[in-house]
Design a protein that fits this description.
Layout (H helix, E strand, L loop, with lengths): L4 H12 L16 E5 L6 E4 L4 E5 L6 H20 L12 H14 L7
Parallel strand pairs: 1-3
Antiparallel strand pairs: 2-3
Length: 115
């Protein structure tokens, strides 16, 4: 499946309609820059200034992996909004992230080990 910024924005906005995202006061997709990179080192990442979500184009995407990965990145968007996203990547998945991830995985039926 080939990703485009339009597909990423639509996926983000669709997931925003569901709890817990619908309670988090996340910005609409029009307030975030979505892009697809040639990078293969990571599936996706969030940048803070400007607020952006970048997905890896070469990765093998399915609708399920797109939704799961976008939900994961939406937690990082929430961390940016709250000011709790750590500068070092290894600290992104701190206790606050884990609590939000549990809620997201429970709501969407995602496997927490794969999240």
């Amino acid at each position: 499946m080939k990703l485009t910024p339009r597909i990423l924005r639509a996926t983000y906005d669709r997931l925003r309609l569901f709890p817990p995202f619908s309670r988090w006061n996340l910005p609409t997709g029009t307030k975030i820059k979505f892009s697809v990179s040639a990078e293969v080192d990571c599936w996706a990442k969030v940048g803070q200034e400007p607020l952006q979500v970048v997905f890896s184009g070469p990765r093998p995407w399915s609708l399920a992996s797109l939704d799961r990965t976008m939900a994961h990145e939406m937690i990082h968007v929430r961390q940016v909004i709250l000011g709790t996203l750590q500068d070092k990547e290894e600290k992104h998945h701190n206790l606050a992230f884990q609590k939000m991830a549990q809620s997201v995985c429970r709501e969407f039926g995602f496997d927490p080990e794969a999240f």
